[in-house]
Design a protein that fits this description.
Helix 1 packs across helix 3, helix 5 packs antiparallel against helix 17 and helix 11 packs across helix 12. Helix content is 31%, strand content 29%. The protein has six domains: 60 residues, Winged helix-like DNA-binding domain superfamily/Winged helix DNA-binding domain (Arc Repressor Mutant, subunit A, Orthogonal Bundle), CATH 1.10.10; 64 residues, OB fold (Dihydrolipoamide Acetyltransferase, E2P); 67 residues, OB fold (Dihydrolipoamide Acetyltransferase, E2P) (Beta Barrel), CATH 2.40.50.640; 298 residues, no CATH class; 55 residues; 80 residues, OB fold (Dihydrolipoamide Acetyltransferase, E2P) (Beta Barrel), CATH 2.40.50.140. The strands form ten sheets. It has a five-stranded mixed barrel with strand order 3-4-5-7-6. With 692 residues, it is of the alpha+beta class.
Length: 692
């Protein structure tokens, strides 16, 4: 019988000795094969040679040579090693390369490496890392531990897949978070683990502030602004001269207000709406940060390095200093502010008549948070008559915009974020799920109007677009196979937006959305920044960019400079190659922000749940893999695992194509969307539950 594991071992032996030809007995000896497996070896060799995965001549077997085999440079991805798999990948163009764990040399997650491709099988490339070109991290953040008289740190990032020995412990004590400077990357061949010296002690592991600091250090995020940036900041004034106002459209008499989260400190967008006999005019005002941060300035240079602001519970690392982000440019109420305004005129049927963008000056009349506006929409709160009337008209416009976007193919996925509730001492005391309300939808709709128009305005030249490519049809077909077993149909004979819209509309209840909205997202590509306009699939837009958050995103600040140059009929201040590089930086820094913010969230959840060990919860199965059920609690937005080995009432068989386990004797099924009663049993790198 053909043996998949045996096939891998055979291929490995032949590839390791590409110039040798092996008899069957040579292969059996190299493997250390037992007699009862000899027939499996013959069957496996027959299939491999028949499928041209290995060569066979005169009853001898040898490796298939890869044409034009050469070193390829890529980025090492150790995510699978962190999940206890025996392989990893090198991300390279045009495709990723599969690397067995013993062929990873001394590479660690995100290192730039050279890899030699040895062979291809089933359309996939398999290789060996030959050189580490550049280290992603020369400092490792982790928890210091003493064990049997030796010193180690356990890296916080599980994708740094080994522990590190410590030569100099400095002042560190067990269970403290530390920064280790690596002096030796070890040797996998000689079973030597990497080592280094502790250069900084951050504090006691488990302390929320220390845990956030450890993530900041791990991702090398900047805690302070360089002195030359601060010196330049001193030259900026928040005074607005009459000469500046004369050159702009004066909208200070226009009823204007901001709507933001209650915790927001920087307000970069404000809105206005006028209704008359001809229809509606929407004004989206965006802080004119480019007026104060020139492209040749140290401020712009630093903003480019940071890429965006980083938002953690109780802590923000801003892209621009607070004097700009919270004071000069922030659209605070009752203060004159310089802005760029996108003006859109609609008829009574909410069809666009005209659009324009110009430099302006505004004075916000009020600051609201989302909760206040939702309470007004729900008739639980009263507001001043003029503001109330404007908000009712805004609600009507927003509802029409939502309807139009859905008709165009807009995909609305319900994937809530976690809201952390803290006590006065800064400890997490509760976890809540965010909700998208009418006020959130309204602001999102108005910002989309502005972003889409600006993208069209700049599309005749080179600029930075926010793109979201269509998903691969192959992945959708696999999703269809899986989802069909849950009595949900996917018609593949329509455009992809309609396919996924129909799928979302079919989901019978909230529990299905909790599972399959995530699955749909995982089967789509990630949005990114690009100088090539490939459209935005999720938003169903042909033209889209980011313009509305110049205080916290470098992409938006770049777009502001381009728009302002267009006003003055000047060329863009950025060359094509520079814009290409800036788009790459913006995408890369956004990914770092996402990863670091996600890691802080996980740390806070872990700290919170450690106090709950032994408690019982209701949960839902949201994913299944070959080792565990992945569950999410109903009470808290917390995911964890139920190890299959802990299900001792039967022997369970895994059916990956249908995401389920079935007991061999009793036929009990565990599948997606199933409700469970679980007990929180333990917490290490994962949160572990047992089924009750």
């Amino acid at each position: 019988m053909y043996d998949k594991k045996l096939a891998y071992t055979i291929n490995k032996i032949l590839q390791d000795s590409p110039h040798n030809h092996f008899k069957i007995k040579d292969i059996a000896q190299a493997i250390g094969l037992r007699k009862h497996k000899y027939k499996d070896l013959i069957d496996t060799l027959f299939k491999l040679s028949r499928d041209k995965e290995i060569n066979q001549k005169n009853r001898k077997y040898y490796a298939v040579k890869v044409k034009n085999a050469k070193n390829i440079t890529g980025i090492f991805d150790a995510t699978t090693l962190a999940r206890n798999k025996s392989f990893a990948f090198v991300k390279a163009e045009p495709e990723d390369i599969f690397i067995s764990s013993e062929d990873t040399l001394t590479a660690y997650h995100n290192d730039t490496v050279d890899v030699e491709v040895n062979y291809q099988r089933n359309g996939k490339k398999y290789g060996i890392i030959t050189k580490v070109v550049k280290r992603a991290n020369k400092k490792i953040i982790g928890t210091f531990q003493e064990y049997n008289g030796k010193n180690y740190i356990i890296p916080d990032n599980s994708r740094i897949h080994t522990n590190f020995a410590v030569n100099d412990i400095s002042t560190a004590r067990s269970n403290e978070k530390v920064v280790l400077e690596v002096t030796n990357w070890g040797s996998r061949k000689y079973y030597k683990i990497p080592a280094g010296n502790i250069i900084e002690v951050l504090g006691k592991a488990g302390n929320p502030d220390v845990e956030i600091l450890s993530v900041i250090k791990q991702y090398d995020l900047p805690l302070e602004f360089p002195q030359n940036v601060l010196d330049e900041l001193c030259t900026l004034s928040d005074d607005i001269s009459e000469d500046m106002i004369i050159k702009r459209k004066d909208l200070r008499d226009l009823l204007t207000f901001t709507i933001d989260p209650a915790s927001a400190k920087d307000f970069d967008d404000a809105i206005s709406l006028i209704k008359n006999e001809k229809g509606f005019t929407l004004y989206v005002h965006i802080a004119d940060v480019a007026q104060y941060v020139g492209t040749k300035s140290k401020l712009f240079e630093e903003a480019t390095k940071r890429g965006n602001s980083y938002y953690f519970p109780k802590k923000v690392i801003p892209m621009l200093p607070e004097k700009i982000s919270n004071m000069i440019c922030s659209l605070r109420p009752f203060e004159d502010k310089l802005t760029l305004t996108v003006q859109t005129r609609y008829n009574d049927d909410f069809k666009i008549i005209s659009q324009n963008v110009y430099e302006s000056v505004i004075c916000s009349n009020a600051r609201f948070n989302y909760k206040e506006i939702d309470e007004f929409f729900e008739e639980k709160k009263e507001l001043e008559p003029e503001i109330a009337e404007t908000l009712r008209d805004m609600y009507k416009l927003s509802a029409s915009l939502t309807k139009n976007r859905v008709n165009c193919g807009y995909l609305k996925l319900n994937i809530p974020e976690t809201i952390f509730v803290f006590d006065d001492e800064g400890h997490v005391i509760d976890l809540e799920r965010s909700k998208e309300t009418d006020s959130h939808k309204m602001i999102e709709n108005f910002m989309l109007v502005a972003n889409e128009f600006i993208a069209k305005k700049l599309s005749s030249g080179i600029t930075i677009f926010r793109i979201h490519e269509k998903p691969d049809e192959e992945r959708l077909l696999k999703l269809k196979e899986e989802i069909t077993s849950y009595n949900i149909k996917m018609q593949m004979n329509k455009n992809m937006n309609v396919i996924l819209q129909n799928l979302l509309n079919q989901l019978p209840d909230e529990s299905y959305h909790r599972v399959f909205d995530r699955k749909i997202l995982r089967n789509m590509k990630k949005a990114k920044y690009s100088v090539e306009n490939l459209g935005h699939f999720g938003l169903a837009m042909r033209y889209y960019t980011h313009f509305t958050s110049p205080i916290r995103r470098i992409s938006d600040l770049i777009i502001h400079h381009q728009i302002k140059n267009k006003f003055n009929s000047q060329q863009t201040p950025f060359s094509s190659s520079h814009l290409f590089k800036l788009a790459e930086i913006a995408t890369e820094r956004e990914q770092i922000a996402d990863e670091s913010e996600r890691e802080v969230d996980l740390k806070n959840k872990t700290i919170f749940m450690k106090k709950k060990i032994g408690e019982e919860y209701s949960a839902i199965i949201i994913a299944v893999n070959k080792n565990a059920l992945i569950i999410e609690l109903d009470k808290y937005p917390v995911t964890g695992i139920v190890s299959i080995s802990s299900l001792n009432d039967d022997q369970y068989q895994y059916y990956p194509q249908h995401s389920r386990y079935i007991g061999k004797r009793k036929g009990k099924i565990y599948k997606l969307t199933d409700k469970l009663k679980v007990l929180l049993s333990s917490i290490d790198d994962e949160i572990h539950f047992k089924v009750l």
